[in-house]
Amino acid sequence: MAAMKWWGWGPEGLEFTHEDKPALRPFIQWALGVDVASASVSPIPFKDLRVPESRLTDDLRSALEAAVEGGFVSTDRLDRVVHARGKSLHDLVRQRRGELNRVPDVVVRPGSEDEVEAVMRSGIDADAVVIPFGGGSSISGSLEAPAGEQRPVISVDLGRLNRVLGIDATSRLARVQAGVFGPHLEEQLSAQGYTFGHFPDSFTHSTLGGWIATRSSGMQSDRYGDIADLTKGLRVVTPSGMLVVRPVPATSNGPSIRQIVLGSEGRLGIITEAIVEVRRIPERRTILGYLFPTFADGLAAMRDIAAGEFSASVTRLSDAPETQFSFATRRLPSLVDKLESAALRTYVGRRLGYDTGQMCLSFIGYEGSERHVARERKAVGKLVKRHGGLCIGSGPGTLYDQKKFDIPYIRDFLLDRGVPGDVSETAAPWSRLAPVYDAVRSAASDAFGRLGVQGYLMCHLSHSYHAGACLYFTFAFRPTPDGDILEEYDVVKVAIQQAFVDNGATLSHHHAVGTEHAQWLEEDISQPGVVMLEALFEGADPGRHLNPGKIV
Amino acid sequence: MAAMKWWGWGPEGLEFTHEDKPALRPFIQWALGVDVASASVSPIPFKDLRVPESRLTDDLRSALEAAVEGGFVSTDRLDRVVHARGKSLHDLVRQRRGELNRVPDVVVRPGSEDEVEAVMRSGIDADAVVIPFGGGSSISGSLEAPAGEQRPVISVDLGRLNRVLGIDATSRLARVQAGVFGPHLEEQLSAQGYTFGHFPDSFTHSTLGGWIATRSSGMQSDRYGDIADLTKGLRVVTPSGMLVVRPVPATSNGPSIRQIVLGSEGRLGIITEAIVEVRRIPERRTILGYLFPTFADGLAAMRDIAAGEFSASVTRLSDAPETQFSFATRRLPSLVDKLESAALRTYVGRRLGYDTGQMCLSFIGYEGSERHVARERKAVGKLVKRHGGLCIGSGPGTLYDQKKFDIPYIRDFLLDRGVPGDVSETAAPWSRLAPVYDAVRSAASDAFGRLGVQGYLMCHLSHSYHAGACLYFTFAFRPTPDGDILEEYDVVKVAIQQAFVDNGATLSHHHAVGTEHAQWLEEDISQPGVVMLEALFEGADPGRHLNPGKIV
User: Fold this and answer.
1) Is B194 tagged catalytic?
2) Residue B198 contacts A, CB cutoff 8 Å
3) Range list of H helices, B113-265
4) What does the H/E/C string look like for B344-389?
5) Burial environment of residue B240 by CB neighbours within 10 A (0 to 12, 13 to 18, 19 or more)
6) For residue B454, which phi and psi values (nearest 5 degrees)?
7) Residue B197 region, left (φ>0) first, then alpha (ψ -120 to 50), else beta?
8) How many Å apart are CA B222 and CA B385, to the nearest integer?
9) Tens digit of pLDDT for each residue in B93-117?
10) Residue B332, Cα to own-chain centre: how many angstroms?
11) Is residue A523 packed enough to be buried (19+ CB in 10 Å), middle (13-18) or exposed (0-12)?
């Protein structure tokens, strides 16, 4: 897996474009008052980037070279810059501007758990900072060393630990190295007829270890479970030795060490292996599109699905603004045909009494045996109808499925046009979803108003549970001509996040805390919760060598 | 809810008897060489019990009386003795003998969260030990103060905090006080059409707070989830203030504080409230009995059910020794008729080729709509047949359902006859179940042999997951005439527990660590895991006031 662009998402040369999406340019013109016809803001050329000198000492270099065989100790400038940060909007803007802070002094790529242990020992002995690096796709600031860090900084890239080591077919458990990227993991599993079923938006550029360290969730987690459910066993290199969590299905052995490692963002150690649940590749898999008259109708349907005798693999519901955005990014003629056809418009607008401005697009996925899928489709279809919804077939679902990993590219596309855009997501009980949604819309609108900018906010429900759901907001705005993009971005982002925690929702459903959400941690988990996390990190890492400054 | 006997399970006057179970006396005669016709060993009379004087100081008494209104500060001897321990076999034997160690100096019964906070403050200010007490049903030694504890010991009985405070019908979440007992919780919920669905064997004598503090599991957890799944929000009185966990369905806000409180056995604070998932009482609920030719056939069937497109509410499978015990405890003529009928014997023994000595009894539960239950029954029935199993109808299931909470009484019945009997349970991946089972049988057999005693060991699978299951062992033996029951018991118990951890299983699936399983903690969670728990407890409770000595 090649590294991502040092300044943006995905490999060099792969970019989002509006050119094959005829409705997108007018949509953005309408929504943000921005003409995306041509890009006007480029990242600083790499040759002009002022990369701080590596502070790696000769002793530490020798120790690391002894720890990791085969020349996998790098002080290459590009390598260091690629490993300096993740892909938060702050990260992207600052990298594009050439505003580097504390770039790692060295990037090491251990090829075995023993080598990770040796790196850990070398780092601690040299009083260095050790930051594990998976796909580098964090959008919460989990990867950057503190600006004032005086100690040497080691980025430990786990990319060489990328193998499925074995599958226990009886237990449906796979032993997997933590540095494997999503596609490579699925490829190895599918060769034996299995799937992991974990497909976050970052899938192509994120790793198993990263998913675990950030409590990730994927588009099919309604069926497969979040990463916290899927991860059973763990091996973690810690300052006090190898932490081994047994892959038992459940246990009553005190506060769960497994759950303590999940979401720990490198503060407790470096995850080298996990034993995870895998499932047989289903006989049939399909995602259907649905339309609901309003967001409230759709939410009520999703809520009923989550409690019913169903097992939908995907429950996704866009609000009206996101539905309009989805229509604007359409590419496949089949979808255009369907949605734009006079017949459907008439049917939707007149027969069902839909207000097309309020209409919400939804995707519901099914998988399993042919028979199971047929039965679920039918039962869910009836439920959808009871909520005023309408099935629009598999075309939109297929399209969604095809383009689901393209979303992160849009931020770069917008930044090339001087426009900041980003996401914020949360989870809340079903009864709190409407209040949270309203509060976020109002908070974002106020923020746009205070800044005096034209902005757009849209939302989808991305995961359903018996007791609640995840609401996933996306926003963008046209910044003021003379303002600082990051300052203006923060006004909007902070307003949204504050609305989450003020309304009983959590700071993030699946994007972790890092540094960018840390200011809401105490409001989310209360002060005694913070005391417990501090005690945990201090006790496990008294020298504060492990990814300092993250979470708390 | 009245307190349990100070020396045994359940309320005074309620006891297990063999007299209505004609096959039990000969069975125990055969299995243990013991005639249970009459009891020969009685607990010491309470009047002869030497209860240590309370060490409560006048200052602390005043502070507690100010903290808890209405005379709920007790130094009554019986009250203190009832709160001294749980119901482990060690607890029962020592209580019966009158061997009290460090009995609490005072029992307080706060009537509100504010009062719990005031008790906590008073306790810490007076450098006292604070031990929360729910139903007192712990069988892992989670409730006893350390023998050498010099500080005053306060037992905080949560029994007055027993209300369902509200149900959020939209989110299907109930806000419940932690001291509520199982039956009272279900009663309050069912008045509004809901059920919590958590039915551990201790159900009648255990509390919500106790379930959370020990990571409990119930007989229907296959469908409803373990307590760790059902518990969403938490309120916990801690030395650093009120810990509040929001009832969000999932979150990515760092290592899970929710999961840290689960299983914490009073080491981090006193749980006062939880927000838990509830479900509508199902239209239909049934438990069917099945017979399998061998334990291996039954395990294979349970494994397939756990991965299939089913949602059984109960999956229980007894091994052959437990099947024989079940037959020996039969009471209802309908079951006797079925199982003893010449026709069934012939059918089972000849037509299916069962070896009745290897035959295993299983219960599989279904619930939901009539239609759903009918469909699941049929599908599971086919699967069972493929594994050589035979449905024996709803009679045995009904019986099992009726007597499921009677099991804990048997230990007292046996101790009245000088016979120690107890349980040990664990969880492991499916591929490890047979090795764990074999190792435990062999370890127990060796232990009985070393002691030179006749013993009996039986087992059932009690909970199934996609990746593994819980194996629940019950054992009893006829001790040597001159040996110490507890020493001999330890030989057997230690052998079984050691076989768990030596074979990749966990120290307990749902009975917690306490003091009695603490010796296996490091083998189970590895040394860095112990370091993390110690740091957590030390950080949250630097004065070590909270239930010291438990877990680590």
Assistant:
1) no
2) no
3) 113-125, 182-190, 208-214, 221-224, 227-230, 257-261
4) HHHHHHHHCCCCCCCCEEEEEEEEECHHHHHHHHHHHHHHHHHCCC
5) middle
6) -90, 125
7) left
8) 21
9) 999 999 999 999 999 999 999 999 9
10) 26
11) middle
C-beta separation of B275 from B234 below 8 A: yes
Tokens 């016979």 correspond to: B419
Provide the mean pLDDT of chain B. Answer: 94
Q: Would you list the DSSP string of A339-367?
A: HH-HHHHHIIIIIS---TTT-EEEEEEEE
Question: Which are the catalytic amino acids of A?
Answer: 472
Distance CA A49, CA A94 (A): 11
Nearest 5 degrees, angle CA B116-CA B120-CA B122?
A: 115
Run of H or E including A97: helix A89-97
Q: Which residue has 């008897």 as its token pair?
A: B17
**Helices (DSSP H) in A225-369: which residue ranges?**
227-230, 257-261, 295-307, 320-328, 333-340, 342-346
What is the β-pairing status of strands B284-292 and A153-157?
A: unpaired
Length of chain A: 552
Looking at this protein, which amino acid is placed at residue B118? A
Residue labelled with tokens 């931020």:
A411
DSSP-derived secondary structure letter, B2: P
Concatenating the DSSP letter of every residue in B34-84 gives ---SS----PPPGGG--PPPP---HHHHHHHHHHS-SS-EE--HHHHHHTS
Q: What is the dihedral of CA B114, B116, B118, B119, to 10 degrees?
A: 170
Confidence label for A3 from pLDDT (cuts 50, 70 and 90): confident
Length of chain B in residues, anyone?
Answer: 552
User: Above 50 in pLDDT, residue B232?
Assistant: yes
Q: Tell me the C-alpha distance between A154 and A145, whole Å.
A: 9
Strand partners, B156: B108, B132
Contact B267, B131 (CB under 8 A): no
Tokens matching residue B541? 């409770």
Domains belonging to chain B, first-starting first, are 52-157 (3.30.43.10), 164-280 (3.30.465.10), 284-403 (3.30.70.3450), 409-528 (3.30.300.330)
Pick the range with the lowest mean pLDDT from A26-35, A276-285, A322-331, A516-525. A322-331
Range 246-305 of A in CB contact (< 8 A) with B:
246-257, 259-265, 268-269, 277, 279-280, 303
ipTM of the complex: 0.96
> How much is the average pLDDT of B205-231?
96
Q: How far is B125 from B63, CA to CA, in rounded Å?
A: 10
* CB of B168 less than 8 A from some CB of A: yes
CB-based contact B247 A311, cutoff 8 Å: no
Say what the pTM is.
0.96
Q: In terms of CA atoms, which chain A residue is nearest residue B503?
A: A246
Chain B nearest-CA distance from A486, in A, is 24
- CB within 8 Å: B254 and A505: no
How many other CB atoms are found less than 10 A from the CB of residue A459?
27
First-to-final CA distance of chain B: 32
